[in-house]
Design a protein that fits this description.
The structure holds 2 protein chains of 2 kinds. By secondary structure, chain A is mainly beta. Chain A contains 3 helices and 11 strands, in the order H-E-E-E-H-E-E-H-E-E-E-E-E-E. Chain A has a single domain, classed as Sulfite Oxidase, Chain A, domain 2, CATH 3.90.420.10. Chain B has a 6-stranded antiparallel β-sheet with strand order 4-3-6-1-2-5. In chain B, strands 9-8-7-10-11 form a 5-stranded parallel β-sheet, with helices on both faces. Classes of the chains: A mainly beta, B alpha/beta.
Chain lengths: 202, 249
């Protein structure tokens, strides 16, 4: 049933194909976060990989910056309904990170953990095979603090809350453990094309 | 703080517009009759509009009404380049149906049992979810110290102004401070510049309490400035919750 008097503002035909259901295109870059923006010092920045509590690998900023760099171009989709098309990010793919650490994923799930005590769960299968990276640059420049800099996870095929800002580590978990938003009403997986916004969305 | 809200199905349903009132030159309140689960102050709903050819647009709006209120109140600011807000401002009228789902959100929420002292900081239309908290507080916990700092361009653009003044007159534990960034202050206790660290330090001293929970809602630039100031003044980041609209460009 249509809404009386509503006609809407249609996206271009190209954008329409690239927008998942319920999303609209923005040229802006909205900021969402659960609390204040942490200002992370590169001198003390570390990225760690753990299996439960066991440390598997860790990098300082200089060590991390020396890893192979990859550029990714594409669209990002926020659960709050905006999508930003044609973004450019660069950083280290999770494949390259695991290879540098000599790691074979010990479990099928992990929690991405952040400097502001945020976390979010992602299946390992959604991070490998070129699907995700630890990004350190957006549009060719360092990522601004409010957008997750110095480094954030980028898992662009899932709603953007999965792309944890201010990342400090990846922690393998035996099972799929709910992260911050996943404990607060949001979907465990978050596929924008299936519109998996909230807990019980199919 | 409990982590259990909104962990249930939120299905689309029809809601009927009961009344629309003008709050300020740019903001209206839309009152809806809907059969939602009882919400928690701070939660939002998703709204979905459908064009005759099936095209749909969705947006999220914070709930401004108190939990358990008869009608659901949404305060909607008209965005000149918007798609959904102009519909509410120019087309929608009493008796129209729209689709809703919710209530949604389990972080930017406050229940009476969460207690205080409670500090709320609003920028412009960001007052909506904080108004739900003031209303919930006024019903449930009016002995908990409550500070609302509300920043707007001018006095005339304060949403819920008369109700907030009346609430303040009724509850001695409610300190309500307005700061206007483009117009003169109205009352002796009000301020007339942008919130920054030193202004916030003064307000915390005047209040005389250490907040247990802080909620900040407004534009991203507003929230960034306020939270940076709070953290600088020693408020622990972990007790500060934010909700933001808009971006950096």
């Amino acid at each position: 049933m249509s809404t009386r008097g509503f006609s809407g503002r249609r996206p271009s035909e190209e954008a329409a194909h690239r927008l998942p259901p319920g999303q609209y295109q923005t040229d802006d870059f909205p900021v969402l976060a659960k609390g204040p923006t942490p200002h992370v010092d590169l001198a003390t920045w570390r990225l760690t990989i753990r299996d439960g509590s066991q440390l598997l690998a860790n990098w300082t900023w200089a060590q991390f910056e020396a890893l192979p760099q990859t550029i990714w171009r594409g669209d990002i989709h926020c659960v709050t309904k905006w999508s930003k098309l044609g973004t450019t990010w660069s950083g280290v793919t999770i494949d390259d990170l695991f290879q540098a650490a000599g790691i074979t994923p010990p479990t099928a799930y992990l929690l991405a953990e952040s400097y502001d005590d945020y976390d979010t769960n992602v299946p390992v299968a959604d991070l490998v095979g070129g699907k995700a990276m630890i990004a350190t640059r957006f549009a060719g420049a360092s990522i601004q603090a409010e957008h997750g800099g110095p480094a954030r996870l980028l898992v662009p095929h899932l709603y953007f809350w999965k792309s944890a800002k201010w990342i400090k580590g990846l922690r393998f978990t035996a099972r799929d453990e709910a992260g911050f938003w996943e404990q607060r009403g949001y979907h465990m997986y978050g596929d924008p094309w299936r519109e998996q916004r909230y807990t019980d969305d199919p | 703080m409990t982590v259990d809200s909104a962990v249930k199905a939120v299905r689309w349903q029809q809601a009927v517009i009961e009344t629309i009132t003008t709050q300020t030159p740019r903001i209206i309140s839309v009152f809806l009759r809907a059969r939602l689960e009882r919400h928690v102050a701070g939660q939002h709903v998703d709204v979905r509009l459908t064009a005759p050819d099936g095209y749909q647009a969705q947006r999220s709006y914070s709930i401004a009404s108190a939990p358990g209120a008869d009608l659901l109140e949404l305060a909607i600011e008209r965005l000149d380049d918007g798609e959904v807000s102009p519909y509410f401002h120019e087309v929608a009228r009493r008796g129209d149906s729209i689709e809703l789902r919710g209530p949604i959100g389990g972080h930017f929420i406050w229940r009476g049992e969460d207690g205080g002292p409670l500090m709320l900081i609003a920028g412009g239309s960001g007052v909506a979810p904080l108004m739900a908290m003031v209303r919930a507080w006024s019903v449930a916990e009016p002995k908990t110290p409550l500070l609302l700092v509300y920043s707007a361009r001018v006095w005339e653009e304060l949403v819920f102004r008369d109700e907030l003044l009346a609430t303040q007159a009724r509850h001695p534990e409610f300190l309500f401070i307005v700061t206007t960034t483009r117009g003169p202050r109205h009352r002796p206790e009000d301020l007339d510049r942008r919130l920054d660290g030193s202004l916030l330090r003064g307000l915390l001293a005047q209040w005389g309490h250490s907040p247990r929970h802080v909620y900040v809602c407004g534009s991203n630039a507003f929230v960034e400035a306020v939270t940076d100031g709070l953290v600088l003044e020693g408020v622990p980041p972990a007790i500060i919750r934010t909700e933001r609209f808009g971006g950096d460009s």
